[in-house]
Amino acid sequence: MSHVTFGPADLTTFCSLDELGLTVTRQHVDARHAVLECRVSVIDDICRGCQESARSRGTVTRELAHDPFGDRPTTLLVRVRRYRCEPCDRFWLEDLTAVAEPRSKLSRGGLAWALKALVVDHMSISRIAANLGVAWNTANDAILTEGHRRLINDPARFNGVAVIGVDEHVWRHTRWGEKYVTVVIDLTPVRDGTGPSRLLDMFPGRSKQTFKTWLSDQPRHFRDDIEVIAMDGFTGFKSAATEEVPHAVAVMDPFHVVRLAGDALDQCRRRTQQSIHGRRGMTGDPLYMSRRILHTGAKLLTDRQWDRLEALFAANEHVEVEVTWTIYQQLITAYRSTKRSQGKQILTELIESLRTGVPACLVELKKLGRTLNRRKGDVLAFFEHPGTSNGPTEAINGRLEHLRGSALGFRNLEHYITRTLLETGGFRPALHPHL
What we know:
The protein is α/β, with parallel strands linked by helices.
């Protein structure tokens, strides 16, 4: 630190109050909080009417929550001068627009700290309110309003979006009210390898009409820039995309394709279990004990797991499970192929075999074959447009589950949408340039 030039101690600069146009005159600090008495640095005593100097007629005080220092909430006690112009008989107060919004209980510095704490540090509203020394509702309303103004309402955040993913999300785990919302994810950074995905928007419902309405409400240049839309097997999203952005390529992402095959494997295992034992699986049943191993990729199985699978498939009554498991593994192999052309060829042949060569007794595979054949173009489009998986969408869903836990649940959908956008909307670099 020998190269650092020191100057006199300055509480105004240390608390960043010079940026707000304030000067600290006195302080009160105890074990629970700190209060800084301030005055406006620039004297505003010129009358707007006659341009004469006015006389100060005392002060009024305004209390504002500011950046907390240490573990103490910090309050600014701003003494605002009140002026009177004798010739014009005009009264006015010093302008505090640079310090805080009208009627706000938070200074601009405190509001900026609170927004950063929420977006960058993932602090809960309760913790932020405690650090500021204000009520929960005061902090929540101020942060959400500022988040909309500075981040969410910025039209530039939709610029450069070429690949999007659309999926449903359960936001309310109760039986009353709307439980589902549709989430739209920007997958362009994932495809280009420039960063993680980010949440673009969230809106109530999970139907074709809701997604179509959202697309139609977007600017024309945004819709024209969309090249690829990753989605699950829901035909409503496919129809809406075809009608509103017909030039975009629909991709049924690997995450949901593999999940369809996994569901078919589970259904076949349960049906076989019922057929053999007349009941659902229990501890000790070979099929039930192997349910997790069946979903593991063949290349990831240990020797012990291979031994258990071989013992399972040695029984003739488990042959349908073995066939379904083989199809499941072939699907995984196609997506894990290092050469996209080879993976596409494997999956093309697999879809064709499911369409024509499946016995009637394998009802799960026949259903899977019909689904994959109907969406064959969308399934195979992934190999022409890599990096368009909805897997990052599921990762964002995991972060939203953490958000819901830290907030102890949400009852207001509008607040939930705002919080999720601030949490996963990719705004951290805007508030912290080193991230």
